[in-house]
Amino acid sequence: MKYFNNPDRLVSLLWQLWQGLGVTMSLFGFTLLFSLPLGLALALLRMSRHKALRLPVQLFILVMRGTPLILQVFTVYFVLPMIFGAAFERLTAVVIAFVMNYAAYFAEIYRGGVQAVPVGQREAAHVLGFARSQAFMRIILPQVIKRIVLPVSNEVITLVKDTALVTAVGMVELYRVARNAASTVGSLEPLFIAGAVYLLINAVVSFLFNRVNRYFSYYQG
Amino acid sequence: MLQAENITKRYADNKVLRGVSLRVDRGEVVAVIGPSGSGKSTLLRCLIDLERVDGGRIMVGGETLVDSQAGGYAGKAALRRVILKMGFVFQSFNLFPHLTVLRNVTEAQERVLKRSKREARERAMEVLDKVGLSDKASEYPYMLSGGQQQRVAIARALAMDPQMLCFDEPTSALDPLLTMEVLRVIKGLAEEDRTMLVVTHEMAFAREVADRVVFMKEGTVRCEGTPEEVFDHPEVRAFSSQAPKP
């Protein structure tokens, strides 16, 4: 018990963890902010009737889902600067890699959601004179959202934990702070405290998604 | 009102429609009967551009939907005009589950016909009243029986003020009791001298309500005429005697 019986040390650790948490949450927030809409755009392209739009996106999704996220982070942070000369700021590079990766997963979740809406819904919109885009926005998309809440919650929970990967490019976030403290003091306590923080965040995420899910139970089908 | 000439349609090697012609005059109720797989539903779906024909000509209210001899399918604007001339009722209702009954009926009025909220609501309550469901306006489709859902679907089609109504086996997903309640509504509409095209397996209904009956088999029209003539045709007699009695 190197921390729990030493209040000064504990307070100092908590302060550092708090700062690390800031980095973790910005990565988390920016990734969601951009990957959720980008995923929708990718899903629409992936479902396009035109091969020229569909195939590149299909390839992109294959690569993003088929290679390790950590390798993608390395690529954006180390390899792209070699090609383009200018380097990204660390957080920017990491966010770009995360957004591309998560957008690929979200795209497939959305696509599954769209395909799960019965074809009769599209047909009913068609015979009522809705244009395709109107039908999608007013009739299909609201029903897709209900169907994707739970699969999206899985990804979001994974994202909370994946943020710890960025220690690999030297970013100091929640997990890195804990690991540094653990090795300095020679105790696993900081890591367990960090674990508890991740758990707490995901408890909140789960709670919110359950609320959203319950909201959509106002209708069936 | 509606004229379809020499329609052909195939899925791979399966020739679903082998040169079918059909005509519906203004104010006329036409029933299309025939065994499953005879192409009735496919024909109906071609008329409102849910399926594309391989050949033939379709005219609705003076507007050409498709003419394979002259330029194929009409442009977007003309397609839309044709679609709006017709109301379509599906076998599986296809109500929008995330919208209340009222919004099922108002949504297209507002978005497609650009009616005001108020106007759409008034028209919706009128047609819901006509199908006897104005008291269900604030419920969601899943709360309704199949028969009620189909009546809402009919109201939804009526609210768009189409010149013609198409029914694609409107009672095939319903039990006999619910079938009766839906047929009563359709019969009420027929009595208003509306132009209607009904694909159905309800022989008694076709006999009673239709001005003209078309019997289809294997992708062709085998015979057509008044209900008396058609139900007297030997092939139709053989078919309808196999059909379950209502």
What does this structure look like?
- The complex is a heterodimer of chains A (221) and B (246).
- Chain A has 221 residues and is mostly helical.
- Chain A has a single domain, classed as Orthogonal Bundle (MetI-like fold).
- Chain A has eight helices and no strands.
- With 246 residues, chain B is an alpha/beta fold.
- Chain B is 38% helix and 26% strand.
- Chain B is built from nine helices and eleven strands.
- In chain B, the strands form two sheets. Chain B has a six-stranded mixed sheet with strand order 7-8-9-3-10-11, with helices on both faces.
- Chain B is globular, with a radius of gyration of 18 Å.
- The two termini of chain B are 31 Å apart.
- The mean pLDDT of chain B is 93.
- At the A-B interface, helix 5 and helix 6 of A face helix 2, strand 7 and helix 3 of B.
Structural class of chain B: alpha/beta
Distance between the termini of chain B: 31 Å
What gyration radius of chain B follows from the Cα positions, in whole Å? Answer: 18 Å
Q: Topology as H/E string of chain B?
A: EEEHEEEHEHHHEHEHEEHH
Largest sheet of chain B: 6 strands, mixed
Counting DSSP E segments of at least 2 residues, the number of strands of chain B comes to 11
Tally of alpha and pi helices of chain A: 8
| The CATH H-level homologous superfamily of chain A | MetI-like
- Give start-end ranges of low-pLDDT stretches of chain A: none
Overall average pLDDT of chain B: 93
Strand content of chain A: under 5%
| Measured distance between first and last alpha carbons of chain A | 54 Å
- Contiguous uncertain segments of 5+ residues of chain B: none
The pLDDT mean of chain A sits at: 94
Q: What coarse outline of chain B follows from CA principal-axis ratios?
A: globular
- How does the helix and strand content of chain A classify structurally? mainly alpha
